[in-house]
Design goal:
The complex is a heterodimer of chains A (793) and B (290). In chain A, the strands form 7 sheets. In chain A, strands 4-6-2-13-10-11-12 form a 7-stranded mixed β-sheet, sandwiched between helices. In chain A, strands 8-16-15-14-9-30 form a 6-stranded mixed β-sheet, sandwiched between helices. Chain A has a 5-stranded mixed β-sheet with strand order 1-29-28-27-19, sandwiched between helices. Chain A is built from 19 helices and 30 strands. Chain A is an alpha+beta fold. Chain A has 3 domains: 202 residues, Alpha-Beta Complex (Aldehyde Oxidoreductase, domain 3), CATH 3.90.1170.50; 332 residues, 2-Layer Sandwich (Aldehyde Oxidoreductase, domain 4); 152 residues, Aldehyde Oxidoreductase, domain 4, CATH 3.30.365.10. In chain A, helix 12 crosses helix 13. Chain B is an alpha+beta fold. In chain B, strand 12 and strand 13 form a beta hairpin. Classes of the chains: A alpha+beta (793), B alpha+beta (290).
């Protein structure tokens, strides 16, 4: 991997302290690395809860069924079984889990943690067994007899929308969960009058999160204090706490949610609330004994939310120069058995126009209930699908007019002087969809230069004349990131003289212990070694949202910056009194605050703590010294900031087998200012691996009866290191004006345009055949079918 | 993903292992490398009452020279065979196929005989041993017997091993002079079970024509399938591109695979033809240069 900065350097958002090395923008190695690389990471299952019982779930093998009866007698007699509960045994938990993101148009159907009567997807839990070990619990699960009345199921949006389709929910007259249309300009009129029109149907599958560490929950109830402590493997500890307080009718302060320090990944599904999250702590309270449930991979395949399929019907109208006049996209989104949240389809809805100036837009969502596990965001979260719809049509326009696809894109791109750019649609928070900043043409030109686009085209022509199938693809995107409502940072000078940065957001491997120390270091002018970072514990900071949607650096980062500046002031206030010097003359030198740069006139952070935090019992504090060196700050962005990028790829298709080989891949990425370039590169490359999975490998298959067909890694292909090709990175830094750091999200840009880019390249490679690529992931079998179809034409 | 309860036995000699197998027979499973059995236990797809771990059995972990060939006993790891200079020289087909088996960590544990006894029709080793006309050495308290590979593999995960029998080793005879071999498979990802694979062993007569040929495909039937029609096309012919093309068409025509979520029947049939052509082309070039 090689990286190249096309801007001089990121603009420095924080004025560097004289004489101190700035940390924001520095390639600091992660503090987490040593323990992770040496096997010292500690995950949920490493948590030692002496004597904890273990749980396993009985899950329905039918996609749609009514529970007639559940017989637990044989299982209950098994030695080592502590307790068994069905949904009917726990009426307190028969409360619907509200969708995480909703909309007034949603026809919401109740999702229960442990449904007592009716099940809607294979893998939905119907009973929980608690036993002395997971082995015994699984033995007991096999002994539980559930009598089901099996009902017809639907397992695709096409099946769900068929006129005579079985209904997923008896309460509804069809399977449409939500139908939303957004319009800018006069799309119908524009389509009627456009000089050229093209349309296509794309079926786009996305897989699951497949974090290396599956889900899990451990819980312990302390009868003496009435406090429930819950350890989930989640991206959103405060969301979990709020949901549990709601389910159990407890005060939020009596529910403490602690996320283990290390995490084997999240990628979206762990930002959702699953039924098991409510069941396990509840039975721990009933038993007054710790209970642990670690999801295994078989459960993860069927019961953890995934993203799955969308079907797009897209139509474009354009002029002779390839300039877009109108885009219309109607897409079906598979919401699964329940709506756990509308974030994915709503993001798809507003991501469609991408980097282009399009006067007339029609974007329409038909969200369907199906008898499959509910869908949730997975890194990229609805954007890759929208980018496929738009970027595939950009190539078709070029093909139709005999123009170069890069040129067609450049002709349509929003210019750098048009920001803030109003797209004409509404963002999912209801505000006008507005891009804050960016420079799409300059990044595109830089990527084309790095890619040696003209040279690649010449080499492609040579290869073609030698009978090789070589193709080039581009894919541009925007990503609304840094979303609200808010995130906070609590900075405190601890009694040992360390500045502790406490965040509500919890890391999934992004290096929070490092980057928030970098931000606090520059905010305070204090060396990083005196700054520590703590995360993921609701008892340490009361409010928070979590880590998802490429939002944390924007929100928690800005909060840390603000809190750091205020904490510095507070510390200097004390030092000013102790040293008898004006605060303006103070600065940090190591762990000391110096007056006028004279080490002889200084106090240590421990001295300050002694006066302000520890104090002397019954003794009056020195006048002018504030008590308790602590600052909590929250940052609420006024709207999303927009990251952007463009990818370029060369691929070769084996005409014998349909195998796709990636020959070159260049990523152009603009996430504004960069806190730590090493970690941004890591995010982009990791995201790219996810994109490769989406483009070429990953698909969750279900048969017509809603039975999962890819329920292990034998039948579900994740890309491994061998399948992820080398990448060349090009960075551009266009700061966001919407937050004081000028940052944007970096977590998903590596993923978002990969399916579109590779699909464009593969179709370009197959152009001699006129073969069409309209279904993703693009497997060799599909390429072979596409080539064969055109051969027979 | 926890196995059902089982009783664990760890014999230290072949006789002890055979005695345990005789006693528990259908209720027992033999554990060697565990790369297929352990997942099956954890999925609860296999639930033996007794697990007979043969890893402590003496004398089964070294490849040895036997009269006119090589013997690979039951505890020889796949990686050992792959890296053995003698076996690489004697049977280039073995490393060619083994490099495609899963990943090195798995081959470090997985045994050659374990893969043969497991008899996954998509696996490489049963196909290769069929092409090499290998002989299975099978033992029980009732005595020893030899089973040719073609008779050993019977159906999906089914061999001619009786419930009380242990596959103690596999013997591969030295290849005749003027013999070339080749292996090709197609898997979407490296290390996956192949959608299809073809192994070939071709012996040329003094005039360069094909004197003997064994061409075997996997992934297309319930066991490794000899491509007899393609073999017929080749016999007595020099493997020119035209002849290889005819063999490709014959191979495509004689297999009858089923489709699944990963590949249609048509696609697998097409792949068998392509892979047969690739194997034969390599063999033809090698033979012509010899």
């Amino acid at each position: 991997m090689t990286a190249e900065a096309i801007a001089e350097a990121p603009v420095r958002p924080v004025e560097a302290t004289p004489g101190k090395q700035p940390m924001i923008g520095a390639p600091v190695r992660r503090r987490e690395d040593r323990r992770l690389i040496t096997g010292q990471g500690r995950y949920l299952d490493d948590l030692e809860l002496p004597g904890a019982y273990e749980a396993a779930f009985v899950r329905t093998p039918h996609a749609s069924a009514r529970i007639r009866s559940i017989d637990t007698t044989a299982a209950a007699r098994l030695p080592g079984v502590i307790g068994i509960w069905t949904g009917a045994d726990l009426p307190e938990l028969v409360k619907p889990i509200p969708p995480k993101v909703s909309n007034p148009l949603l026809r919401d159907m109740p999702r229960y943690p442990l449904p007592p009567e009716r099940v809607h997807f294979v893998g939905e839990p119907v009973a929980v067994v608690v036993a002395e070990s997971r082995y015994v619990a699984e033995d007991a699960v096999e002994l539980i007899e559930v009598d089901y009345e099996v009902l017809p199921a639907v397992s695709s949006t096409t099946a769900a929308l068929a006129p005579d389709a079985p209904r997923v929910h008896d309460e509804l007259d069809d399977n449409v969960a939500i139908h939303v249309t957004q319009v800018a300009g006069e799309p119908e009129e524009a389509l009627r009058t456009a000089p050229h029109r093209l349309s296509e149907r794309f079926v786009i599958a996305r897989g699951g999160g497949h974090s290396m560490e599956c889900r899990g929950v451990a819980a312990r109830y302390d009868v003496g204090t009435g406090q429930l402590t819950v350890w989930p493997s989640t991206q959103s500890p405060h969301y979990t706490r709020n949901m549990l307080a709601y389910f159990y009718g407890m005060d939020e302060d009596d529910v403490r949610v602690v996320v283990p320090r290390d995490s084997g990944g999240g990628f979206g599904p762990k930002a959702q609330f699953h039924g098991e999250d409510a069941v396990i702590p509840y039975v721990a309270m009933l038993l007054r004994h710790p209970v642990k449930w670690i999801e295994d991979r078989s459960e993860n395949f069927v019961a953890t939310m995934m993203e799955r399929n969308q079907v797009h019907h897209v139509e474009v109208g354009f002029d002779d120069d390839g300039k877009l006049i109108v885009v219309k996209n109607v897409f079906e989104h598979d919401q699964g058995a329940y709506c756990a949240g509308l974030q994915v389809p709503m993001i798809t809805l507003s991501t469609l126009p991408g980097q282009y100036r399009i006067p007339n837009i029609h974007t329409e969502l038909i969200g369907c209930y199906t008898n499959m596990v509910p869908t949730s965001s997975v890194r990229g979260a609805g954007r890759p699908q929208a980018v496929v719809a738009m970027e595939r049509m950009m190539d078709r326009i070029a093909e139709h007019l005999g123009l170069d696809p890069a040129e067609v894109r450049l002709r349509n791109m929003i210019r750098a002087d048009e920001f803030p750019y109003k797209v004409g649609l509404t963002f999912r928070d209801g505000s006008p969809l507005t891009y804050d900043s960016g420079d799409f043409p300059s990044l595109t030109k830089a990527v084309l230069a790095r890619f040696d686009y003209d040279g690649e085209r010449e080499r492609q022509a040579l290869a073609r004349s030698a009978g090789r199938l070589v193709g080039i693809g581009l894919g541009a995107y925007v990503e609304g990131c840094g979303l609200g409502p808010y995130e906070g940072a609590r900075l405190r000078l601890t009694n040992d003289g360390t500045v502790l940065v406490t965040l509500a957001a919890t890391p999934l491997g992004q290096g929070y212990e490092t980057i928030y120390a970098q931000i606090a270091s520059d905010a305070m002018g204090l060396d990083m070694e005196h700054i520590a970072v703590a995360t993921g514990d609701t008892s340490r900071i009361p409010f928070g949202q979590g880590s998802f949607a490429s939002r944390t650096t924007v929100t928690a980062g800005s909060a840390t910056l603000q809190a750091g500046r205020e904490l510095r002031e507070k510390i200097f206030e004390v030092a000013a009194v102790l040293l008898g010097a004006p605060a303006e003359e103070l600065c940090f030198q190591g762990d000391r605050v110096c007056a006028g740069g004279d080490p002889g006139r200084s106090v240590s952070l421990r001295d300050i703590v002694q006066v302000s935090n520890i104090g002397k019992h019954g003794i009056t504090m020195p006048r002018g010294v504030p008590a308790g060196i602590e600052v909590t700050s929250y940052f609420s962005p006024e709207r999303a900031s927009y990251a952007s990028g463009i990818h370029a790829a060369t691929v070769e298709v084996d005409p014998d087998t349909g195998q796709i080989k990636i020959l070159r891949y260049v990523i152009g990425h603009d996430c504004g200012n960069v806190i730590n370039p090493l970690l941004v590169d890591g995010q982009v490359l990791g995201g790219f691996a996810h994109g490769i999975g989406n483009a070429l490998y990953e698909e969750s298959f279900y048969d017509d009866a809603g039975q999962p067909q890819s329920a292990s890694y034998l039948d579900y292909s994740l890309p491994s290191a061998i399948e992820v090709p080398k990448v060349e990175l090009v960075h551009q830094f266009t700061p966001s004006p919407l937050n004081p750091l000028g940052v944007k999200g970096a977590g998903e840009g590596g993923t978002i345009p990969v399916p579109a880019t590779i699909a464009n390249a593969v179709e370009d490679a197959l152009r001699p055949f006129g073969a069409r690529i309209t279904s993703l992931p693009i497997t060799p079998a599909k390429v072979f079918a596409a080539m064969t179809a055109t051969n027979h034409r | 993903m926890k196995p059902r309860p089982f009783t664990y036995l760890a014999p230290t000699s072949v006789d002890e292992a055979l005695a345990a197998l005789a006693e528990h027979s259908f209720d027992a499973k033999v554990l060697a490398g565990g790369q297929s059995l352990a997942p099956l236990l954890n999925f609860r797809m296999a639930s033996p009452e007794y697990l007979i771990d043969i890893n402590d059995v003496a004398g089964l972990d070294r490849v040895r020279r036997v009269d006119g060939g090589w013997h690979i006993p039951a505890l020889v790891r796949q990686r050992t065979v792959e890296r053995s200079p003698e076996l690489r020289a004697a049977f280039p087909l073995l490393p060619a196929a083994l490099e495609q088996v899963a990943h090195p960590q798995i081959r470090n544990r997985g045994t050659v005989c374990g893969s043969l006894a497991h008899a996954d029709p998509a696996a490489e080793l049963p196909t290769v041993m069929t092409a090499l006309d290998a002989t299975m050495r099978v033992a029980s308290v009732r005595g020893e017997r030899e089973v040719p590979a073609e008779e050993f593999f019977q159906f999906h995960f089914t061999t001619s091993l009786e419930d009380d029998e242990l596959l103690v080793g596999v013997t591969v005879d030295d290849l005749p002079p003027a013999t070339s071999t080749g292996f090709a498979e197609f898997a979407p990802r490296h290390g996956d079970f192949a959608l299809a694979a073809v192994a070939g062993v071709v012996t040329r007569a003094s005039d360069g024509a094909v004197g003997a040929v064994r061409l075997v495909a996997s992934g297309v039937a319930a066991r490794p399938q000899r491509l007899t029609a393609a073999e017929k096309v080749l016999l007595g012919q020099r493997p020119t591109p035209d002849v290889v093309g005819a063999a490709e068409r014959a191979a495509r025509g004689e297999v009858d695979p089923t489709g699944d979520i990963h590949a249609s029947a048509d696609y697998r049939r097409h792949l068998v033809g392509v892979l047969a052509r690739r194997v034969l082309t390599t063999i033809a070039e090698e033979g012509d240069h010899a």
